[in-house]
């Protein structure tokens, strides 16, 4: 009788273990899927932020370049005018 009870308990234990192993694998896969979705979302946000900052930097560089060129042309015009006034 003891041996039969031990076999029953062992088989029941195996069934419970298998059932929870399946649940564990399902839960782990759900967590992986959730984390993959979060990672993809964060990557998309980061790429958009990087693109935005890059465009802002290019616009600022262009603005500074134009400002610098206009200042140079003003300085050149003033230098020419001062030379012409000396003549």
Question: How does this model look, in words?
Answer:
- With 87 residues, the protein is mainly alpha-helical.
- The chain has one helix and no strands.
- The longest helix has 85 residues, at 2-86.
- The radius of gyration is 37 Å and the shape is rod-shaped.
Mind describing the biggest β-sheet?
A: none
> Strand-residue fraction?
under 5%
Task: Count all strands and give the number.
Answer: 0
Helical fraction: over 70%
Question: Uncertain runs with pLDDT below 50, 5 residues or more?
Answer: none
The SSE string, one letter per element, is: H
List the helices and strands and how they pair.
Elements: H1 2-86
What keywords describe this structure?
87 residues; 1 helix; mainly alpha
Short description:
The protein has one helix and no strands. The chain has one helix spanning 2-86.
């Amino acid at each position: 009788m003891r041996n039969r009870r031990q076999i029953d308990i062992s088989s029941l234990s195996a069934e419970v273990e298998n059932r929870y192993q399946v649940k564990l694998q399902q839960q782990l896969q759900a967590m992986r899927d959730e984390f993959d979705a979060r990672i993809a979302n964060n990557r998309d946000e980061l790429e958009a932020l990087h693109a935005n900052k890059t465009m802002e930097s290019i616009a600022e560089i262009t603005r500074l370049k134009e400002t610098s060129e206009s200042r140079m042309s003003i300085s050149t015009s003033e230098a020419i005018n001062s030379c012409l006034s000396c003549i």
